[in-house]
């Protein structure tokens, strides 16, 4: 199915590969499925969030923003907190690299959520 003429969403490099292209058959269902994987299970089952994908996207945005803050805090405090736990320097260095990579990954996910949210908003405005 071609994109509808009212859809102006451009697919960004951050568009998640798990979500079909806006305007294609069942794309919103694929967006909901992907977004549900980003929120805690207890939220993923709420009917209101499932019936209104924009609300689910909003919650996923808040969730990932929180996760970014947690990962940044863990990264910023690793050098001071981890030695007191009796961890070796190599484990501490590995942990710091892990947190740094996680922050980058979460930032990418946040950009992907923004792209999907924009497409969902445009799709609903076109109706």
Summarize the structure in words:
The chain is an all-alpha fold and 127 residues long. The chain has helices spanning 27-36, 41-44, 47-51, 53-81, 89-125. It has one domain (27-125). Helix 1 (27-36) packs parallel to helix 4 and helix 4 packs antiparallel against helix 5. The longest helix is centred in the C-terminal third of the chain and has 37 residues, at 89-125. Mean pLDDT is 91; it is low at 1-9.
Write the layout of secondary structure elements.
Layout: H1 27-36, H2 41-44, H3 47-51, H4 53-81, H5 89-125
Quick structural overview:
With 127 residues, this protein is mainly α. The chain has helices at residues 27-36, 41-44, 47-51, 53-81, 89-125.
Q: Name the quaternary structure.
A: single chain
Overall number of domains: 1
**Main sheet?**
none
What are the secondary-structure elements, in order, as H or E?
HHHHH
Low-confidence stretches: 1-9
Number of helices: 5
Distance N to C terminus: 16 Å
> Can you tell me the overall shape?
elongated
**Which structural class fits the helix and strand makeup?**
mainly alpha
Q: Return the average pLDDT rounded to an integer.
A: 91
Strand content: under 5%
Helix content: 55-70%
Q: What's the total number of strands?
A: 0
Rg value: 18 Å
């Amino acid at each position: 199915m071609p994109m509808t003429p009212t859809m102006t969403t451009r697919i960004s490099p951050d568009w998640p590969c798990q979500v079909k292209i806006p305007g294609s058959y069942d794309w919103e269902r694929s967006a909901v499925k992907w977004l549900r994987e980003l929120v805690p299970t207890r939220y993923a089952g709420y009917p209101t969030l499932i019936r209104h994908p924009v609300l689910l996207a909003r919650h996923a945005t808040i969730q990932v923003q929180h996760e970014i803050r947690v990962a940044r805090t863990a990264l910023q405090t690793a050098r001071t907190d981890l030695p007191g736990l009796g961890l070796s320097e190599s484990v501490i260095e590995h942990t710091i690299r892990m947190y740094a990579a996680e922050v980058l990954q979460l930032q990418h996910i946040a950009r992907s959520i923004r792209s999907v949210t924009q497409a969902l908003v445009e799709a609903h405005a076109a109706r």
